[in-house]
Structures are given as C-alpha cells and as structure tokens.
Amino acid sequence: MAAEDTRRPRADAARNRQQLLAVATRLFASAETEPSMRAIASEAGVGIATLYRHFPTRESLVDAVYRDQVARLTSGARELLAELDPPAALRRWMDLFGEWVATKNGMLDTLLAMIESGEIGHAHTRTELLAAIDEILDAGRTSGQLRGDVPAEDIAAALIGIFTVAGSPEHKAMAARLLNLLMDGLRPSSRRR
C-alpha cells in the first residue's frame, strides 16, 4: 500500500487538477462573490466528486489557488528577466501582480478567514513577493536602468494602492496609466521618458 501512496498521479488526474486550478483562478478573479464549488466543477467540465477528490474543502481549493499564484509571481520574476530588460520585466510583473490581486476578489472571505486562523502565512507570502521584486530591481540597478534608492517594500505598497483604487476590470486603463507613472518614477532621471 505504501508504494501506491508515492506513485505519481495519473495523467488524467493531474490534468483535472490543473484544469480545476485554472478555472477556479479565473472564476475567483471575475466573481464579485465567492463562486460555488459546484459552479467551479461544472465550468471545469468535471463532476463535483472529482473536485472534492482533489480539494476536499473550499479552504483547500483557495489555498491551492493562492499558493499557485504566489509561485507564478515568484518564478515569473526570473522568467521575465530571462526574456526582457529589467524595466520591461518589472512592468510586466506588475501586471501579473494585478492579476494575482484580482484573483483574490472571489475568494476574499475564505482567504481572510484562513489568514486570520494561521492556515495561510501572510508574512511568508510577503517575503516571497518582496524577494521577486528585489530580484528584478537588483538586475535593473546593475544595468543602470532602474533607480538604486527605491526598496521593494515601497513598490509593493504602491502596487497595493494602485490596485485598491483601480483593481476592477472597468478601471484597467487607469491601472495601466498608474503603473506606467510608477515605472517612470523608478527609472533614473537620465532615462525617464
């Protein structure tokens, strides 16, 4: 029996899990209130039993979506730096951060309860996100394309402010303008547009 516990999930089970995560992420981002587990399963094209087999509780699904999004943000910093110069990587990362914030809309009540109960470590997530910002900032400082006097904490605070004011889909253009203003302020004065 122990050998069965260490086996990799079947390919279809792994696909179902990924599909459920993708659909839950999309529904959480577009919903004003938390979508039902049944709605998530239906949208993913699987039965409710399949959803519960992968995620026995709403909290386990919210936790998986949350952790998946944080992992995408942290690995996204490295991937973006491999493809883009530091300012372009940081600007694109800001868009990813906005998508992450939007995902929390439809799971906010559950997420807040989980943070309050200690099921999700808010401090650990903050540390991971600041490290991702620092990674891009360090590359930009080294290349001379980003200012050296702005800490990651200030950028994170600015992003939270921007997405608090302009986080809804109808404010997407405003968010883009505000992010571009933030980016202009992060460039050394000789490199500003």
TrEMBL record:
Gene3D superfamilies: Tetracycline Repressor, domain 2
Cited InterPro entries: Homeodomain-like_sf, HTH-type_TetR-like_transc_reg, HTH_TetR, Tet_transcr_reg_TetR-rel_C_sf, TetR_SbtR-like_C
Keywords: DNA-binding, Transcription, Transcription regulation
An MF annotation (GO) of this entry: transcription cis-regulatory region binding
DNA-binding as UniProt keyword: yes
PROSITE patterns membership: HTH_TETR_2 (PS50977)
Span of domain HTH tetR-type: 14-73
Superkingdom of source: Bacteria
DNA-binding region per UniProt: 36-55
Protein name stated in the entry: TetR family transcriptional regulator
